[in-house]
Write a sequence for this structure.
C-alpha cells in the first residue's frame, strides 16, 4: 500500500447525500478480475449519458475541478453494497481523500485498506466547504493525517478528525492488515486450539 | 459476571487478541465466497505465495453473474462467463469447496448457507457481500466485507475489526393481515433512515420477532445493512434449533445436543446494556413500499410520499433528485400507479416460504397482461422443493415462469434487467438508481405485495384482496 502523506488539493464537490456504492461503480462494471481500471467508470451513470457522452452538468466533467485529489460528498457516503471496487474506482481516478459528514462502515474499511483516507467532518464544516467552493472553484483543503487536522486553506477554518491509532500507523507507513495478521499466526493457532466452539461445530 | 448482550457473547468468544488503540483480531468461523468479490483476493494470495489458512472454513458458490435460464449452457455474456470461470479456476487451484453452476447445492450465497446447515448460532461469518447480515437470523455475527478483507480471512481466518456499538430493536405484538416480515424491516428502515444503524450491530427482539419462522427472520436480518448497520441478529430459540436439525452440514446426534446446550446460552442477559434501544408495535405496521432511491424512503402502500416540507432542509436536494429519478411527486399516493415489471427473488425473498406465499396468492388468478415477471428461486434446493410441491405449476397456470437460481435482477449483473424508465415492484433489498438496470426505477415490497401487483398490473394494497 502507498504511504499516505499530507495533502493539499482543490476538491471535487458532490453535495448529494446517501451516495451508494452502486452509483460510485454500477454492478455491470464489477466483472473485472483485477483491481485496476475502475476509475473510468467512477460514477458512470451520473457522468455519462447512454451514448457514453460526458454529461456537462456533472462535477467530474467540469474542468474547473480538474486534478482534485479530494472528493467532498454529502452524508452517508458509500452506503449499500460492500464492493471494494468503489474504493478502487475512487483511487484509480486520482483521489487520496474522501470528506463527508458520515461514512458507511464497510466503505470506510475498504477505503482505509486501499490508502484512501475517509475524513469525517461535522455537518457544519461540510456545509461551509460546499458554500465556499461555489464562490471559489479552486478552493483548497489541507489534510494532515499526522495531526488529524483538516483545513480550508486561506480561510482559517479547520477541524480535527478521528482515526484509530492502528489505522493511522498503517496509512502513514503503507502497512496492510495481512502483514500484521500473518505475523501473529501462532496466536491464531493458539486461539483455535483453545476454542470449545470450534470443536463443537467442526465435523 | 457483567451482563452481556447476545452480540457481546459471540464477539468476546471470537477475539484472538486486541490491539491497543485499534481494532480487535476477530476469528472467523465461516467464510462464504462468490465470483464477484473474490478474484482479486485469490490473486493477492498468489502474489504473497500463500494458500488459504483454513480451507475447511471456506465455501464458494457462483450467484451474482449466473443466467436464470439454460444454466446447463455456457454463459453467453463474455465478462460474466470469465468471472464465473475464474472462480472455478481459483477454487480448483486453492482447493476450495465450490457449489458452482450445475451443482445441486448452487444458489445465492445467503440462501445456501442456512439451508445446508452451514450457518449456525454463535458463529462469526463473513462474505464479500453486504447481505451477509442475513445469517444473523441464527444468532451469529455475520457481516459483509470488502475484497482486501476477503484476502485477510483467506490468509489468516481472521479480520481486524473495531467493535461496533449495539442497538436493540424490539417489535412487540401481533402482525396484521397482509403484513409479513419484509414489511417489518421496511417499516423500521423508514423510521430510522438508511443511515440510522451505521456504527451499530442490531439485535432484533420482541414477541413479533419471536413468532417469525427462520426464513422470515432471515429477511429481517438481511436488510439490516440497509439501515447502515454492520449486521443484525436474533437470539436462537426452538424455532432455530428445529430448523437446523438434520441439515446437511449441521452437527448430528450427541454433538447436536451439545451444540444446542451451548446455543441456549446465546441471548442478551436481562440487564445487558445496549447503546440504543428502539421499540415498535407490530400493530402499527402495514404493507410497505418504497418510493425513492434508498431503502429508507419507504411508506405504507396506502400512504403518501412525504411533502417537501416534511424533509430536513439539508436533505431536500437529495429528496428532490430522488423523486425526479423516480418521476414521482411529493405528497402523491402510489395506489393505482401502473407497473410493468415485477421481480420476485434475491437473498431477501427467494426462499421456499416466499415462493409458497406467492403461489398461494396467485393460485386461481392470472398475471396482468402488462406485467413482465421474474420469479427466481434462491437456490437449486429451493427450486427442487418448489417443483416437488407443484409451485412451478401453480405459477405457470397464473402466467409466471419459475426460473433458475441466482441474484438476477436484484442487481442485473446477468441479463435479467429492468429497462430504462420502467417501474419494477421488487422483493429485493435495494432501490438505488440503476440498481436493476440503467435508468430502472425500483419499488421495494414484500413477496405478498409483489404478487398482488403482478395480478393487478398496478400498485395495490394487498389487503384489498381476500387473504386467508
Amino acid at each position: 500500500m502507498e504511504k499516505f502523506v499530507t495533502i493539499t488539493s482543490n476538491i471535487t464537490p458532490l453535495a448529494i447525500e446517501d451516495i451508494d456504492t452502486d452509483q460510485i461503480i454500477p454492478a455491470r462494471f464489477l466483472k473485472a478480475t483485477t483491481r485496476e481500471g475502475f476509475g473510468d467508470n467512477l460514477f458512470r451513470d451520473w457522468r455519462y449519458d447512454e451514448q457514453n457522452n460526458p454529461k456537462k452538468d456533472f462535477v467530474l466533467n467540469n474542468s474547473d475541478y480538474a486534478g482534485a485529489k479530494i472528493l467532498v460528498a454529502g452524508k452517508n457516503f458509500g452506503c449499500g453494497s460492500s464492493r471494494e471496487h468503489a474504493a478502487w474506482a475512487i483511487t484509480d481516478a486520482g483521489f487520496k481523500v474522501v470528506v463527508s459528514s458520515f461514512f458507511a462502515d464497510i466503505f470506510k474499511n475498504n477505503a482505509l485498506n486501499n490508502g484512501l483516507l475517509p475524513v469525517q467532518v461535522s455537518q457544519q464544516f461540510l456545509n461551509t466547504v460546499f458554500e465556499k467552493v461555489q464562490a471559489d472553484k479552486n478552493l483548497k483543503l489541507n489534510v494532515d493525517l499526522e495531526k488529524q487536522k483538516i483545513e480550508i486553506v486561506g480561510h482559517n477554518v479547520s477541524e480535527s478528525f478521528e482515526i484509530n491509532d492502528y489505522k493511522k500507523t498503517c496509512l502513514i507507513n503503507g502497512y496492510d492488515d495481512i502483514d500484521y495478521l500473518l505475523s501473529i499466526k501462532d496466536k491464531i493457532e493458539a486461539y483455535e486450539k483453545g476454542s470449545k466452539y470450534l470443536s463443537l461445530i467442526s465435523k | 459476571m457483567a451482563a452481556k448482550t447476545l452480540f457481546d457473547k459471540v464477539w468476546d468468544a471470537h477475539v484472538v487478541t486486541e490491539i491497543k488503540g485499534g481494532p480487535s483480531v476477530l476469528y472467523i468461523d465461516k467464510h462464504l465466497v462468490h465470483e464477484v468479490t473474490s478474484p482479486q483476493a485469490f490473486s493477492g494470495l498468489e502474489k504473497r505465495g500463500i494458500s488459504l489458512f483454513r480451507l475447511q472454513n471456506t465455501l464458494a458458490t457462483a450467484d451474482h453473474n449466473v443466467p436464470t435460464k439454460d444454466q446447463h449452457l455456457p454463459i453467453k455474456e463474455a465478462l460474466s462467463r470469465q468471472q464465473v470461470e475464474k472462480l472455478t479456476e481459483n477454487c480448483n487451484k486453492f482447493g476450495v469447496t465450490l457449489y458452482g453452476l450445475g451443482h445441486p447445492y448452487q444458489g445465492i450465497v445467503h440462501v445456501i448457507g442456512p439451508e445446508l446447515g452451514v450457518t449456525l448460532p454463535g458463529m462469526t461469518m463473513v462474505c464479500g457481500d453486504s447481505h451477509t447480515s442475513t445469517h444473523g437470523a441464527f444468532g451469529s455475527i455475520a457481516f459483509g466485507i470488502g475484497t482486501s478483507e476477503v484476502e485477510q480471512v483467506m490468509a489468516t481466518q481472521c479480520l481486524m475489526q473495531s467493535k461496533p456499538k449495539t442497538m436493540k430493536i424490539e417489535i412487540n405484538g401481533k402482525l396484521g393481515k397482509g403484513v409479513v416480515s419484509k414489511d417489518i424491516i421496511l417499516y423500521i428502515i423508514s423510521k430510522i433512515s438508511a443511515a440510522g444503524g451505521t456504527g451499530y450491530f442490531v439485535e432484533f427482539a420482541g414477541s413479533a420477532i419471536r413468532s417469525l419462522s427462520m426464513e422470515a427472520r432471515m429477511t429481517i436480518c438481511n436488510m439490516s445493512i440497509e439501515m447502515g448497520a454492520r449486521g443484525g441478529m436474533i437470539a436462537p430459540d426452538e424455532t432455530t434449533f428445529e430448523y437446523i436439525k438434520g441439515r446437511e452440514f449441521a452437527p448430528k446426534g450427541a454433538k447436536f445436543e451439545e451444540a444446542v446446550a451451548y446455543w441456549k446460552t446465546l441471548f442478551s442477559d436481562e440487564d445487558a446494556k445496549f447503546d440504543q434501544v428502539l421499540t415498535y408495535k407490530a400493530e402499527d405496521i402495514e404493507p410497505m413500499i418504497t418510493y425513492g432511491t434508498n431503502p429508507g424512503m419507504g411508506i405504507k402502500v396506502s400512504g403518501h410520499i412525504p411533502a417537501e416540507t416534511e424533509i430536513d432542509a439539508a436533505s431536500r436536494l437529495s429528496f428532490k433528485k430522488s423523486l425526479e429519478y423516480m418521476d414521482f411527486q411529493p405528497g402523491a399516493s402510489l395506489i393505482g400507479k401502473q407497473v410493468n415489471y415485477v421481480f420476485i427473488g434475491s437473498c431477501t425473498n427467494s426462499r421456499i416460504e416466499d415462493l409458497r406465499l406467492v403461489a398461494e396468492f396467485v393460485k386461481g388468478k392470472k398475471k396482468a397482461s402488462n406485467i413482465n415477471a421474474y420469479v427466481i428461486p434462491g437456490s437449486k434446493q429451493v427450486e427442487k422443493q418448489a417443483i416437488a410441491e407443484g409451485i412451478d405449476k401453480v405459477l405457470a397456470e397464473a402466467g409466471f415462469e419459475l426460473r433458475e437460481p441466482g441474484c438476477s435482477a436484484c442487481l442485473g449483473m446477468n441479463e435479467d434487467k429492468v429497462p430504462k424508465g420502467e417501474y419494477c415492484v421488487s422483493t429485493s433489498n435495494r432501490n438505488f438508481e440503476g440498481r436493476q438496470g440503467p435508468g430502472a426505477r425500483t419499488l421495494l415490497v414484500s413477496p405478498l405485495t409483489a404478487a398482488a401487483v403482478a395480478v393487478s398490473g398496478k400498485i395495490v394494497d394487498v389487503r384489498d384482496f381476500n387473504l386467508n
The longest strand of chain B covers residues 165-172. The mean pLDDT of chain B is 97. The radius of gyration of chain B is 21 Å.
